[in-house]
Amino acid sequence: xxxxxxxxxxEELAKIVASAGEKxxxxxxxxxxxxxxxxISEIPVSPSLRAFLLERYEDEPVRxxxxxxxxxxxxxxxxxxxxxxxxxxxxxxxxxxNTQCVSTQVGCRMGCKFCASTLGGLIRNLTAxxxxxxxxxxxxxVGGGLKDKRAVTNVVLxxxxxPFDNYDNVVRFLRNVTDTDGFGMSARNISLSTCGLxxxxxxFAEEGIPLNLTVSLHAVTDEERARTMPIANAYSxxxxxxxxxxxxxxxxxxxxxxxxxIAGENADLAHAQALAxxxxxxxxHVNLIRLNEVKERSLRATDEAxxxxxxxxxxxxxxxxxxxxxxxxxxxxxCGQLRARYMEERK
Length: 347
Description:
By secondary structure, this protein is of the alpha/beta class. Helix content is 35%, strand content 19%. It folds into two domains: 5-56, DNA polymerase, domain 1, CATH 1.10.150; 62-346, Aldolase class I (TIM Barrel). The protein has helices spanning 10-19, 25-35, 47-56, 128-141, 167-177, 198-205, 222-228, 237-251, 269-279, 304-316, 337-346; strands at 62-69, 75-81, 86-94, 97-101, 105-107, 122-125, 154-157, 190-194, 212-216, 255-261, 284-290, 321-323. α6 (198-205) packs parallel to α8 (237-251) and α9 runs parallel beside α10 (304-316). The chain is globular, with a radius of gyration of 21 Å. The chain starts with 9 loop residues before the first helix and ends with a helix.
């Protein structure tokens, strides 16, 4: 597999163009073409520069393989990578704009018992350009441009993979996508979800990228958390909470906890009371989610009435919380489900 040109910063693109013996204005042409989601072979640069680039870089590192559209308008994408691997993403349409969920790894090694992404383990990390390429492909498909003309207005790193397990590539992606001379997305329009790698959370707080940090919590004790999330054996809830406090101190951004409501595991009133006690006084918000069930797993979602009661118990105790609406459920909208099904059908 060749290198991915979309990995490069604006400064690096300029150096590549110069090394090809081309004039500086070609770098701007190249950058604008890439940021509009074009293949190298489509960008109006000189034939000599195009040949130089195609010899060294993938023409189309991320390609939309298949699109599924749900009844609520949510679109699920299967992306094919240059090496034949598949990843997936989601475009969710709201009144305030379009939010795209992107993947950061092919598969995942975190082993969470409620997630389809981890069923086959980790295959490889995505490069910064492959993460960005998912956005560029969808933005082009729906007719978007750059900066204030983007069709993709918000991005969530909540697809396949643990972002902080691919730390360097994810940070490079974030710097590139927020570059005001590039795609120009505000960090405040980006959310990153982690299962709680506390040391990486602390390191990220020093990066100067004040995005919305979301932590998959899903339990109120370390023992309960370890039953569904093996990462709990490496990082305690206390370590995660301390890392969240540090993030708030460094960035001024409140943080979010994801809490999937799983029948018989973490969804009764006692859990709600314990969660409220755990988070009392913290500058945070709780996103409750009725578990997206995975056929290969035995875990089941709590019912709607119980989810509403759990939400009420939190808000009555002063915890900012919402029950998130599941989008795209009729097309396998949960993480990893569509890719797994598609690969099974291709066998």
